[in-house]
Amino acid sequence: MKNSICAFLALLLSILNLSGQKDGWKITSEKVEKYTGIVTANGRIGILPEDKPFKTKSIILNNVYDKESPLGVSKILLGINFANLDVEIDGEEINGNNISGWSQTLDMKTAGFTTNFTFKDKARVSYTIYTLRNVQYSGYIDVVIEPLKDITIKTTGVITTPDEYHSPNSTFRILQDLETTMPVLQTVAESRMGKHVVATSATFIWHAINSTREHQRPELKHEQVSAYDNRLSFKKTLKKGEKFEFAWTGAVCTTQDFDDPQTESERFVIFNLLTPSTDLLGQHKKLWEELWEGDIIIEGNVQDQLDVRLALYHLYAFSRGDSDLSIAPMGLSSQNYNGHIFWDTELWMFPPLLMLNQDIARSLMNYRSDRLDKAKEKAINFGYKGAMFPWESDDTGEEATPAWALTGTFEHHITADVAIAFWNYYRVSKDKDWLKSKGYPLMKEVADYWVSRSTKNDDGSYSIKNVVGANEFAPNVNDNAFTNGSAITALQYATEAAKEVGEIANPKWNKVASKIRILKFPDGTTREHASYDGEIIKQADVNLLTYPLNIVNDEATVVKDLKYYEPKLSPEGPAMGQSVFAVIYARLGDAKEAYRLFRRSYEPNKRPPFGALAEAATSDNPYFATGAGGMLQVVLFGFGGLDITEEGIVQKNPILPKEWKSLTLKGIGPKRKTYTIK
């Protein structure tokens, strides 16, 4: 009889999970052998859950760096982790071996990550992890335990300090103001090379107990296992059917953002403790509801809807409009690529966000304008004029690429990519005050850089020599197609921006732009660089001249370039190359080829069980926000037909793959327009 009930409950759970996924908002998984977690994040911190009860792998801190080693470059910091619990029932710790009915669900609508399971025949357990959008340095774990018989529980909240930290000071204090008592577990430590002080505080919240009625609270016990393992626990006896709800909340602050991170982390925790949970979580959910006013709705293919929405969820989770920060290739999911900022933001992630959320788009632009002075210093240091942006950027705005990587010294198209994004932001927003104060000053410096960076040839043309292009398999080449094309575009846009703000453009900008070389093979196919002869390429380079640059735009050459370079894409390369080809095919009216390449741009890169994207089919480094940006561009600028022009956002020749019944683009541009393609 008991087995029959369990089987029925399992069937019911799978039906509920399926219905949740069918709405296009929830992704649910049961136990799997190979597990890649999916992050919850709020643009400041990211919490990465595991497939173990009440466990999280890490907390990542945005824009907080220290050197990775004495001779290394900067690396994003792991936070001091407050997001782990140990739970015992009747003296037995809950673990993966004594539970059943395991499932985990990401609800993208509310950015909540829920785990459900049953402990033996004693209790049903559910907990949801929120990285609070409204209280941006904090997280919240909401727990529900439903006893199936009389039980005693012991719950321990743990603050774990990564080994790379130094001199941790782990404490527990009960703060008090009049009759209000506030228990706070805390650890403060120095980052690996001593650049920052990091402070994490945490506490329990019992929803049914007023914080001032201390005599009704379970008794708290503090245990410091080591300076790196700080614990706070309570015990409670529950009757059968007596549902018990509580929360564990924590905050992590650093000297990157606060002069006194220790005290500030306490304030966040106290705020969460003394704010009713319905209000606290309600504010978080409302902010996510506002984010989803910019959305992509696919009818007729649930899996595609989930994949696309998961990509957009990550771009929203990794950013915020009030931060003036950017997005690293792996966002807030890991320390991969040291958490540095690349062209990935401007060329791949920025365009979808520019369509769907101008506040976040402006934040990404402000990240660069805030570091303009460092870019001007770099140009001077290398013998150029204007501003020269680093290939990898961190909090300082200086070059953060490891010295051994030639990209850091020679991949210069990033400087043009930044300026192109700036002009596109203006074309969409029409914010002339921003253009005058931040946009044009940067674009002017970039244009001056490209004039000084170009070399005049004997025939009067200009070359850009000794660069690493978008195809990083070919270092130190001359006249790389994308580098030259992006420089031309940046120079032309600077001239247009000058007119817009009433300034006189430097005549050299247009002169150089009109004479920079774009090389061709004898049959008219665009040549990737001066010495290119058909080698395998890491990612799209030449084809970026068609989209997004619109420099190669006659159909015959566009098709030639597509047919020539697609077979040369390496399977080890990142996903974005396929996305570029997909957009171009869609704009040519070939929905079949566009859809094939759209799926190929991310399907081989999905990792179980939630579909987190790795950088390439052969890699295992999710979540790759750059790839998410690429696939979203296929939907918006390919199938959706959106285009950025001097008149703002327009729609040209949308096309629908036969696999979809309709496509709705919601909340597009400053006027929040809706476009529906059927």
From TrEMBL:
Domain Glycoside hydrolase family 65 N-terminal per the UniProt entry, residue ranges: 40-255
Domain of life the protein comes from: Bacteria
Any one biological process term the GO annotation gives: carbohydrate metabolic process
Top EC class, one word: transferase
UniProt cross-references to InterPro entries, sorted A to Z: 6-hairpin_glycosidase_sf, 6hp_glycosidase-like_sf, Gal_mutarotase_sf_dom, GH65_N, Glyco_hydro_65_M, Glyco_hydro_65_N
Domain named Glycoside hydrolase family 65 central catalytic: residues: 309-504, 531-602
UniProt KW Cell division keyword: no
Keywords: Glycosyltransferase, Transferase
The keyword Transferase is annotated on this UniProt entry: yes
GO function terms (MF aspect): alpha,alpha-trehalose phosphorylase activity; carbohydrate binding; hydrolase activity, hydrolyzing O-glycosyl compounds
Enzyme Commission code: 2.4.1.64
Family annotation (PANTHER family): GLYCOSYL HYDROLASE-RELATED (PTHR11051), PROTEIN-GLUCOSYLGALACTOSYLHYDROXYLYSINE GLUCOSIDASE (PTHR11051:SF8)
Protein's name according to its UniProt entry: Alpha,alpha-trehalose phosphorylase
Native organism: Flagellimonas maritima
